[in-house]
Design goal:
The protein has 450 residues and is α/β, with parallel strands linked by helices. Among the domains are: 7-106, Fumarate Reductase Iron-sulfur Protein, Chain B, domain 2 (Orthogonal Bundle), CATH 1.10.1060; 311-433, Rossmann fold (3-Layer(aba) Sandwich), CATH 3.40.50.1860. The protein is 54% helix and 7% strand. It has 25 helices and 8 strands. It has helices at 7-10, 13-24, 36-41, 48-60, 67-74, 81-85, 92-106, 111-123, 127-140, 144-148, 153-170, 197-201, 204-215, 231-234, 239-260, 269-275, 278-281, 289-298, 302-306, 328-333, 339-346, 367-370, 372-389, 399-416, 426-433; strands spanning 188-192, 218-221, 263-266, 299-301, 321-324, 350-353, 393-396, 423-425. The strands form 2 sheets. A 4-stranded parallel β-sheet has the order 2-1-3-4, with helices on both faces. Strand 7, helix 24 and strand 8 form a beta-alpha-beta unit. The longest helix has 22 residues, at 239-260. The protein is globular. 50% of the residues are buried. Bound molecules: iron/sulfur cluster (2 copies). The site of one iron/sulfur cluster (SF4) has 13 residues, from helix 3, helix 4 and helix 6.
Length: 450
């Protein structure tokens, strides 16, 4: 694609990077076939190619983002399915990240939009505030029908409350969130991201990961000072906040790298995709560029790391059928497709692939709060495909997908009286197979729990 940026514009590193990306696009349109929003809306402007044109026009003209551009970029899930499909290697993720930051710095959103975004950005990345918000969400549940009637903001607030209440219900037992003792003579030393929303919603995930690692002789540390990776606000274009959160993690993990670290492990693939991109995000930061690159290079999804370990044989015969949902950030963002399935099979599970597996479930960070209608349509589509596998359990590697899919099944169960399969993180199933506690919702016989 031809571009016409001035030399002055190209002096800005973000614009220079986007210009290179734009030039790589050959307008072939292959990406439109695998874009979830194009699939739902059929509008070229809601396809990757259409958005690339809109971004090009906005950046070349150096003009404030128009409401039309904002609408179509906001509808993008950042699922990166287009990057998997593109034959020309167009780095859409970096382009849309730049566009989102540009929008936030040049466009004043309507008040309702500003309020909901400010609420998300000031609550979700901070576990203490998020815990309080979940309690408030429980109290606010009876007001959902009223809330939905408030124009513009009501529907999105209701979506937030519904998701939170659903997860709160799923957390009936935290028995498996017990601390675990590390190996006495460790073979390796890793840092495990504690993060922000996941430990509040489902602490059993990291507890399972720690037990798995301990069984394989790996010492696990939590880097002092680490926290939210910044992904949630990064995808909202809040660059300063995202960079501040990321910078804190880079310093914390770099200190551990200096002490001797084999890997930084992530149990939420949405976070992993962003942390693996810290090197790019801080490429022009004189103080942090090198440290950020080292952190990104050391980062691995938990499944990526576990597959290279000598895990013990399953402690019990499993034989349970598992529908594996590959999160977009796992398959498109990090190109990890086979590892989780390989681990599940080795642990004795029968893995079932889900039709249309490359299409997003609609979670996409906070997309299900900001775009509840589209997210709901994608969730229904995904849950339908999963249900058709008739698997007893659903496994995935991202807390956002767990929340989203569990809500879809819970809605179906309420409407039709059908049982909802437990939706679990892959490591919860692996840990159980290797001697850990039974995950919530699974019964010892393998059938569905309450
Ligand atoms: S990231 Fe996903 S939703 Fe956005 S343009 Fe690409 S395929 Fe479409
Ligand atoms: S597939 Fe790649 S090259 Fe083709 S239109 Fe989409 S982004 Fe451009």
């Amino acid at each position: 694609m031809q571009t016409s940026f001035s030399q002055a514009q190209l002096a800005d590193p973000a614009t220079a990077s986007s210009e290179k990306i734009l030039r790589a696009c050959v307008h072939c349109g292959f990406c439109t076939a695998t874009c979830p929003t194009y699939l739902l809306l059929g509008d070229e402007l809601d396809s990757p190619r259409g958005r690339i044109y809109l971004i090009k026009d906005m950046l070349e003209g150096a003009k404030p983002a128009s409401p039309a551009v904002v609408k179509h970029i906001d509808r993008c899930l950042s699922c990166l399915s287009c990057m998997t499909t593109c034959p020309s290697g167009v780095h859409y993720m970096h382009l849309v990240d730049h566009a989102r930051a540009y929008i936030e710095s040049t466009h004043r959103r309507p008040l309702a939009d500003r309020l909901i975004r400010a609420l998300i950005a000031s609550v979700l990345p901070y576990p203490g505030r998020f815990r309080l918000a979940l309690r408030a969400a429980k109290l606010g549940k009876p007001f959902l029908p009223l809330l939905r009637r408030i124009p513009s903001v009501g529907e999105r607030l209701a979506a937030m409350l519904e998701l939170a209440a659903n997860v709160a219900r799923a957390r009936r037992s935290q028995k498996d969130a017990r601390a675990t003792t590390g190996p006495s003579a460790p073979k390796a030393r890793v840092a495990l991201l504690e993060g922000c929303a996941q430990p509040v919603l489902k602490p059993s995930i990291n507890a399972a990961a720690m037990r798995l690692l301990a069984r394989a002789g790996v010492e696990v540390v939590t880097a002092k000072g680490e926290g939210c990776c910044g992904a949630l606000v990064h995808h909202m274009g809040r660059q300063a906040q995202a960079h501040a959160l990321a910078a804190r993690n880079i310093e914390a993990w770099h200190a551990e790298i200096e002490r001797g670290l084999d890997a930084i492990l992530i149990t939420a693939s949405g976070c992993g995709t962003t942390i693996k991109d810290y090197g790019f995000m801080f490429r022009n930061d004189r103080k942090l560029a090198e440290k950020a690159a080292r952190v990104s290079a050391a980062t691995k999804d938990i499944s990526e790391y576990l597959v290279g370990l000598d895990l013990p044989a399953p402690a019990r015969p499993m034989g349970l059928s598992v529908a594996y949902h590959s999160a977009c950030s796992m398959q498109h963002g990090q190109k990890i497709t086979e590892e989780p399935k390989k681990l599940l099979r080795a642990a004795g599970f029968i893995v079932k692939d889900v039709a249309e597996g490359h299409i997003c479930c609609g979670s996409a960070g906070v997309y299900n709060i900001l775009q509840p209608k589209l997210a709901g349509e994608l969730r229904e589509r995904k849950v339908g495909h999963i249900a058709r596998t008739r698997a007893e359990v659903v496994a995935t590697g991202n807390i956002g997908c767990i929340t989203q899919i569990a809500k879809g099944f819970a809605d179906r169960a309420r409407a039709g009286g059908t049982a909802a399969p437990p939706v679990l993180h892959t490591v919860e199933l692996l840990d159980w197979a290797l001697g850990g506690p039974i995950p919530d919702g699974v019964t010892p016989a393998g059938s569905r729990g309450a």
